[in-house]
Amino acid sequence: MTQTGTPAGSSATSSTASQMTTDSSLESRDVMSTSAMTTHGPSVSPDPAGYHHGVVPEALFDGPAAQPVKFYQVGSFAVGNRLLPMADRSVQSDPNRTNSLTSGHRACQGCGEALGARYALDAAMRATNNQMVAVNATGCLEVFSTPYPETSWRVAWLHSLFGNAPAVASGVAAAYKALGRDDVRVVAQGGDGGTVDIGFGCLSGMFERNDDVLYICYDNEAYMNTGVQRSGATPPAARTATTQAVGTDPGNVFGQGKDLPRIAMAHEIPYVATASVADLHDLEAKVERAMSIRGARYIHVMVPCPLGWGTASCDTIRIARLATQSGLFPVFEAEFGEVVASSPIRRQVPVEDYLKPQKRFAHLFSPTRRDDVIDRLQAQADRNIRRYNLLPTAGQPAAAPVAEEARA
Amino acid sequence: MKQKPFAITLDVGSSLANETGSWRSEKPLYVDLLPPCNQACPAGENIQQWLFYAEEKNYEAAWRQIVKDNPFPAIMGRVCYHPCQSSCNRAEIDEAVGINAVERFLGDEAIRKGWAFDPVENLSGKRVLVIGAGPSGLSAAYHLRRLGHEVHIREAGPMAGGMMRFGIPKYRLPREVLDAEVKRITDLGVTIEFDAKVEDLEAALAEGFDAIFCAVGAHIGKRAYIPAGETAKILDAVTYLRDVEVDEDKPMLGRRVVVYGGGNTAIDAARTAKRLGAEEAIIVYRRTRDKMPAHDFEVEEALEEGIMLKWLSTIKHVDDGKMVVEKMALDETGFPQPTGEFEELEADSLVLALGQEADLTFLEDCDGIDIKDGVVAVDQSMMTGRAGVFAGGDMVPAERTVTVAVGHGKKAARHIDGYLRGTAYVPAAKHPVATFDKLTTWYYAEAPREHRPYLEVARRASTFDEVKQGLDEETAKFEARRCMSCGNCFACDNCFGVCPDNAVKKTGIGKGYAIDYDYCKGCGICVAECPCGSITMIPEE
């Protein structure tokens, strides 16, 4: 198998910190003016591409005619579109995409995190013209991609400890700043355990200092790598190894856990967004947007885990889609602590449609149906819908909800 | 030995060394399924494929794809009852794709741009006689000619087109369109002899043709016995429509015209009578509207033009200026039964539109040909009981529409070709049908159908201008892009994008994708997320 070349991605690249600093192009590169360097914080400029994040496809709505050609076939929702010029297609449709996380990694069949990480880093590589360093927290993503001495990464990649990825990333960013380089951008990534729980202190520090790092959390809602233990991102009622489906209130407890996107917003950093592997265009647009901004940025990507959630490996994207279409996982973006856009629900489904295919929620349906619990989860979804305005056209005839189960 | 950092003993390697394809128990496979539109098309058009080209604005390629199966895109785009649209999967999401309208756009574009058929190559030296220059005969002649045979048509009438000319009024099919598409066939080298009714098939066979295709149509109006006064004016719809087309002096039916029957021909006759000056045209039908064999949209258009419909009525007696009608009532089986209630209806003339029959006298003395219930029996290859004599269109048992006739012509031509070459034509096996459940419709954006503009009612009621207008390019393209390409890859890159293992490769523009089975773990996401159902999972060997 051959990998078609990208400037930074020669075959079997396993860049380490030492490789980064010995980059032969470093000395020869023009150092950016210091005035640009000292502009600490965001430089939120109008997006020349005319993206309207969170509202796709534009052609469906009475928005500005940003898209010159109407595509009612696919294009707006599928990965690619043969009718569009190459420059307007998604990064993932490009045969020369970085493939940041290449074949042969040891993630399970249908791993949402492997998919999400490639989506996000490939987009970041394009947005940074391949000048990017990735810092990884411990977790599935790190374990399945880098069993010594192999690596699946085709980007400059760095791993230290479970809890310190945000701190290491801050350090990499500081190092480049000290070198007078503002062209190399830093992305840190981790799972929900490394982000919400173990690395939380470092992450909060990175946020409050407004370090120039994009942190991406791939949220599969538990510690999957070590055997599906509950994390601070595990949803209520979900069965994990540490929240068994026993007793009067089986599964994870209601009223616990953290909503990290909202915590990030509370730091009033320039950019916070949520995204899903079910909406590639939105995810890529958000990464691109994040990379156009300086300062601390946070993207929270929902990535279903077939093993931990008890779903069919082929259903990874469908489950992610049901999460957004039920309202349980709101897709939105926020700037300086305020929500500025959200992705409207297109085909609303009851939470039951999302819960039922997952074995971690099987105890809500068998042996006795727990309508009380399902109703509480539905109430959460309804609250998200209100809070993030996920049904802006509610009440109008165009937004008739249709259960995916009924269509499939 | 290379110097390594402390505690590092192995060289850095790529995970590509780890061929995770070995985990797999099932594997994805690209397939082509039969789109329901293609399955429903009586002419066997590859609709999904020509819409694919039309989406790319490659209208000539789209047109050339149509004419592989059907030489009449502009005619089809006007007169076909589009069973493709009735079976279109898109109807389950919003509305069926307006296939017929796009086909008409492509047909009209071809006439505008003067696109011609590819010249015939590899002449076979065989001669085929086609009897009848209607849709079936012309279609057979066209396909036979493209297959390299010499084709001669004998037509009983003075002009080509058959029922497309003598049965379908101008307001549905303008004659310039018909002439243009027939001319393309004669330009290909097919010869047509007019006013040359074949009276005796045996004599024609004796002339030395290698095969004969009979497609004489059904041009005799069925009669019903209705007691009538001497001065009553009664005629049949087929003759009436034909006379309107052929005669310089258009037949006049008086101020009030009654048409008896419930089929499309009845509607055509009533609408034509209205256009020729009848103040009132009334269709009398013995059952109810929902039982009418006429297509609903034609009934709708007729009503808009002021045609009156009288349900549950039979005509008992006709006299000069008036007729007696008996009211009917449906019994529990839905069959109309007389009620004994009568009423009088003022009318100057009565047009019978009670169905048509084929004139098969030319076959009567022919050995081996089996005529039953007024139609000729044919086998799977459209061949009659007589070797080398094939038949199609309205004279064989089938639904009587232009598109079915065109389909017969194609099918017969392929079998005649096989017969002439001594190698029986075996049609390719059909793919499984791309049913709606095989699609992942999330990826198709909602979009309503662009309706063809209708001529305002006032204008069309007095003229033979075409009632339905065509689509402009922008709208046709829009409509083509609503196609979901059911069961056939349209290069949306979804499989390429959604594989968590980068195991889907692009193989070049227009060449589709390939699975890299060294790394494919068999998760099946590409199958689940393929919008059009063009990938399937099969067990690993």
Largest sheet properties of chain B: 5 strands, parallel
User: Strand-residue fraction of chain A?
Assistant: 5-15%
Approximate shape of chain A: globular
The multimeric state of the shown protein is heterodimer
CATH domain class of chain A: Alpha Beta
CATH architecture of chain A: 3-Layer(aba) Sandwich
In the CATH hierarchy, the architecture of the largest domain in chain B is: 3-Layer(bba) Sandwich
Outline the low-pLDDT stretches of chain B: none
**Whole-number average pLDDT of chain A?**
82
Instruction: Name the average pLDDT of chain B.
Output: 92
Point out poorly predicted stretches of chain A.
1-72, 395-408
CATH topology of chain A: Rossmann fold
Strand segment tally of chain B: 22
Helix content of chain B: 25-40%
List the defining traits of the structure above:
heterodimer, A: 408 residues, alpha/beta, 15 helices, 31% helix, disordered N terminus, B: 541 residues, Alpha-Beta Plaits, Fumarate Reductase Iron-sulfur Protein, Chain B, domain 2, FAD/NAD(P)-binding domain, five-stranded parallel β-sheet, 22 strands, 17% strand, globular
Q: What does this 3D model show about the protein?
A:
The complex is a heterodimer of chains A (408) and B (541). By secondary structure, chain A is of the alpha/beta class. Helix content of chain A is 31%, strand content 11%. An eight-stranded mixed beta sheet of chain A has the order 3-1-4-5-7-6-8-9, with helices on both faces. In chain A, helix 4 crosses helix 10 and helix 6 runs parallel beside helix 8. With 541 residues, chain B is an alpha/beta fold. A five-stranded parallel beta sheet of chain B has the order 5-4-3-6-19, covered by helices on one side. In chain B, strands 8-15-9-10-11 form a five-stranded parallel beta sheet. In chain B, strands 12-13-14 form a three-stranded antiparallel beta sheet, with no helix packed on it. In chain B, helix 2 packs antiparallel against helix 3, helix 3 packs across helix 6 and helix 11 crosses helix 12. At the A-B interface, helix 4, strand 2 and helix 12 of A face strand 1, helix 17 and helix 18 of B.
